[in-house]
């Protein structure tokens, strides 16, 4: 297999499970050393690092809550200390505590904003500063969502954060292009992860959701591996400010 990220160092937030874990292991499979951020799941983080190392690459897990701006500085510093550089940054960490709009608790709204959007802003800023300092460009990928483009009754706090990530990548593509740093986003559809496990526990709802997808199934975390690796690699050397739907065709299905 051609290793598209050979010799690169990749950082991924929220990578103890789900899409982040798949992206981290996919990067290692393509020849990258990988540092992951995680919030609480120590066992998941340890096993992700073990998988990275089993692929012959160096792995590092750094614990921290992305809602705290200091976490970004610490994560970047530890990765540089361990690996010497950053080539690719994948902002994946996010939460979606489903809740109705009219009685949305202030703390639920604010926590979602701090993790999904504020956390992403400071993580991307810290990674970009390190890339500028290094002077050899880089790639930043944000895991946004189809929810950046469509609404959700129980996601009125979540969808604005994903639209914000999409917009952040467009603006940072302009701000960082002169430094050779490419900024893009992936927009997953419904992916079977811990974030929606409870919401999709109802088999009827799960079947309904799958039935809306032209490819006939809901997504798995590793469905994001290829798109993220592509955007991180030199195959995408002239791609910046772009967004890539990874949704099985759900967005275009109006039926």
UniProtKB/TrEMBL annotation:
UniProt keyword annotation of Oxidoreductase present: yes
Alphabetical list of InterPro entries matching this protein: KR_dom, NAD(P)-bd_dom_sf, SDR_fam
Name of the protein: L-rhamnose 1-dehydrogenase (NAD(P)(+))
E.C. designation(s): 1.1.1.378
Family: Belongs to the short-chain dehydrogenases/reductases (SDR) family.
Record keywords: NADP, Oxidoreductase, Rhamnose metabolism
Domain of life, source organism: Bacteria
Ketoreductase domain span: 8-194
A GO BP annotation: rhamnose catabolic process
Upper lineage: Bacteria, Pseudomonadati, Pseudomonadota, Alphaproteobacteria, Sphingomonadales
Enzyme class: oxidoreductase
Catalytic activity: L-rhamnofuranose + NADP(+) = L-rhamnono-1,4-lactone + NADPH + H(+); L-rhamnofuranose + NAD(+) = L-rhamnono-1,4-lactone + NADH + H(+)
Pathway the protein acts in: Carbohydrate degradation; L-rhamnose degradation
MF (Gene Ontology): oxidoreductase activity, acting on the CH-OH group of donors, NAD or NADP as acceptor; quinone binding
UniProt cross-references to Gene3D superfamilies, sorted A to Z: NAD(P)-binding Rossmann-like Domain
Record SMART domains: PKS_KR
